[in-house]
Amino acid sequence: MKLLKPPLSLARVNSLLFSSFLFLSLSCAKLTYVTQQGWGQFKIQWQGRDYQEVLEDPKVSEAVKEKIRKIQTYKDYFYKYFEKNPTSIYSEVTFLDREAVTHLVIASIYNKIEPKKEWFPFVGEFPYLGFFDEESALDHAKDLEEEDYYTYVRPVYAYSSLGNFEDKILSSFFIYEDEELAELIFHELFHTVFFIKDNVELNENLANYFGKQMMYEYFKVSSEKQSENLKQFQKNEELRIVLVKLVQEYKNELEAKSPKNKKESDALLADFIEKSFKPRVQKACKEIRFKNCYPLSSEWNNARFAAYMTYEKKANFIESLQKKNKFNLKQLFNYLVKKYKEHEKRDIKTKFEAWIETQ
């Protein structure tokens, strides 16, 4: 069994609506950025091949074909589960000339655990920038670091265009095992049936939650191999809880000590990583017998902490909402849809997640 990679929640990103480049209100630098990313998106669209054609292609490996068949199975299951008409999403395959489809740049200033926001017409704020070209991502990160930001650059293997384009099956999907692939597909498809305007954080947390719970339901009657994989997912959940607590502790410490400059922040971060973060993560991995203790194999800083919290921050809110109302997953979904329509119809100024907790 292939060891699980870091949580799938850290391997996804919603694309910008690339039509934004038509708006002259954008700065020259931002206009250049959006135009470049638009070209990258259009290339992915143009290169798509009908998945049935790919399945009949003798040059394509059987392993890849099996992944495509499973994606279609997961897609069918998803739309039947929510009693929705299937969309044309994932009806074509695009083979990339690289492993990751794009690279994400998250930045956080030295005295905060908070992602730097980027604003675009129509789509609002995003807590990151994505680049189809890795070199461009690294250059942007370097520029931000010169402005005293911490940065975190990571590969992205899947994203949703939120209906602006017909999303393709990307060759980057094929690195995932069955359970990971199912969770990925369920996550991305969730964006096609429920999306809250200008609220990236909540949208990602919802898609994470539903994608994960649907994956558990799909594989609850499974082979021994799949059961072992699910055990690894559950261990990863235990580790996730430890990480969320640690990040919150450091956020509180950072705010309390309020470093005056990057040098002070560096010292505070290094002390926390060595004295608290590493020992407690190592202990957690040992206790749950989690062999792939991924948090210890890479660098953590304010930006990576901010990225992690973006995708985990509201997980407890969603779970508590389900438990409070004793909903099953479908009931929770229908409740959210109903309440969001009510929220929009009444033009309530309070954020949806804050308002729904009062209901």
Short characterization:
The chain has helices at 28-46, 51-55, 62-81, 134-145, 178-193, 200-218, 224-257, 262-287, 302-312, 315-325, 329-345, 352-356, and strands at 12-14, 49-50, 92-94, 102-109, 118-120, 124-126, 129-131, 149-156, 158-160, 169-170. With 359 residues, the chain is mainly α. A hairpin with a 3-residue loop joins β5 and β6 (124-126).
pLDDT < 50 stretches: 1-26
Number of helices: 12
Largest sheet: 3 strands, mixed
Number of domains: 1
Shape field:
globular
- Helices and strands, in order, run as EHEHHEEEEEHEEEHHHHHHHH
* Share of helix, binned: 40-55%
Beta-strand percentage range: 5-15%
Strand order of the largest sheet: 2-3-10
Distance between the termini: 45 Å
Query: What structural class should be given to the helix and strand makeup?
Result: mainly alpha
Tell how many strands the DSSP assignment holds: 10
The residue-averaged pLDDT reads 84
Rounded to the nearest angstrom, the radius of gyration is 21 Å
